[in-house]
Write a structure and sequence with these properties.
By secondary structure, the chain is of the alpha/beta class. It folds into two domains: 7-179, no CATH class; 226-351, Rossmann fold (3-Layer(aba) Sandwich). The chain has helices at 7-12, 16-20, 24-56, 63-69, 80-94, 99-127, 140-157, 159-179, 186-208, 239-247, 266-282, 299-306, 331-345, and strands spanning 226-231, 253-261, 290-296, 319-321, 349-351. It has a five-stranded parallel beta sheet, sandwiched between helices. Helix 6 packs across helix 8 (159-179). The chain starts with 6 loop residues before the first helix and ends with a strand.
Length: 352
């Protein structure tokens, strides 16, 4: 095209092909009409059925709209209501009058859909979820490349329309996420991806970590607190949790374990799940501590198990926090005294 006409002419004359091609005055308009007709026919056939399928899956964030759009004509099972909505949407865009503007808007819909599918495919592949078993398999880097390319093309077409499109799809997703709160959204995809990234980083750091076998205490410039606290009095007082939260605010890491006395069984497991839900409901949004429950017949066994396992960041624990109340019974204080030597043997800092 650049060899057949000047760039200025290509921009100004949309039917320049009819002047360049042989018999272009006849063939080009006929070809454009045929392409437009087939595209419109395909859209009017596919669009209503896609909208009906979304309504049948209750994806439209209004129950009455789902019920109305999913209805079909009994004699031929045609989605009449969905066809009406599709035609109204088409008429709204046609009423704009400007073909270039309509083309940009429609391109945004296609590119947003394509980019979203590529992003979801990338997260599924990278997250390696066992539940993801696609019929057509591809490589994760192809999906990532498709997502990046769709964003780049959208910004090349129109920065304004691109921002509007992403704001619109973000608001729509947030609304549908609240409407379908029982369904798993992007959080599940990102969780699997973060698990994979965290695992890879931890294994890499473990392989690169140099271990010293000297008995002398060595203070590292990279030292930071990685504290763990085990308490059965979580719902009586939260002083230890607040202290651990302060330690973990920026520079440190904290793990809080709510101790449930007893042997591991179906009953104690249900109790642990119930108390875990209570614990999460009591936490505020500013909490910086990873909380969990542990079932153990004694405080000693709970401490011995917990201090050997790395914290949530993958960093080995280096501090143990004990808590007790002077006005309370002396069982907690007795547990601290009896377990202090064991904790100290591991070289842990102790905070009481």
């Amino acid at each position: 095209m650049a060899n057949s006409a000047l760039p200025k002419t290509l921009v100004e004359n949309q039917l320049i092909m009819s002047d360049i091609a042989i018999a272009g005055n006849i063939l080009i308009p006929i070809g454009l009409a045929a392409c437009t007709f087939t595209s419109a026919l395909g859209s009017i056939m596919v669009g209503p059925r896609t909208l009906q399928a979304l309504a049948l899956d209750k994806s439209v964030p209004m129950r009455s709209a789902n019920k109305w759009l999913s209805k079909t004509r009994k004699k031929d099972n045609e989605p009449v209501n969905a066809s009406i909505v599709t035609c109204l949407i088409a008429l709204v865009f046609v009423s704009f009058g400007s073909v270039n503007m309509v083309a940009q808007i429609i391109s945004m819909f296609f590119l947003v859909t394509y980019g979203s599918l590529c992003l979801i495919s990338f997260l599924h592949h990278f997250g390696s979820s066992p539940a993801y078993r696609p019929t057509f398999k591809s490589k994760w880097y192809i999906s990532l490349l498709g997502f990046a390319a769709s964003i780049w093309v959208m910004f090349q077409i129109s920065i304004l329309y691109t921002l509007i499109a992403y704001i619109f799809i973000t608001l729509l997703y947030v609304y549908m996420e609240r409407y379908h709160s029982e369904r798993k959204g992007f959080s599940a995809l990102f969780a699997n991806t973060l698990f994979q990234v965290n695992r890879t980083l931890q294994i890499y750091l473990q392989n690169k970590r140099t271990r010293t076998h000297s008995n002398d205490a060595k203070v590292s410039e990279d030292w930071r607190p990685s504290a763990i606290c085990i308490s059965r009095n979580t719902f009586k007082r939260d002083s230890a949790l607040k202290l651990l939260n302060w330690i973990s605010f920026k520079y440190g890491f904290g793990t809080y374990l709510h101790l449930i006395d007893g042997y591991y069984s179906h009953k104690t497991n249900e109790q642990a799940n119930e108390e875990m839900r209570r614990l999460l409901n009591n936490l505020d949004t500013s909490n910086q501590v990873y909380v969990d429950t542990i079932i153990s017949p004694s405080t000693t066994s709970a401490i011995a198990q917990s201090i050997q396992i790395p914290g949530i960041a993958g960093m080995e624990n280096n501090m143990v926090i004990f808590e007790f109340l002077k006005s309370d019974n002396e069982d907690d204080l007795h547990d601290i005294i009896s377990n202090f030597r064991m904790v100290n043997a591991g070289g842990f800092d102790v905070c009481i």
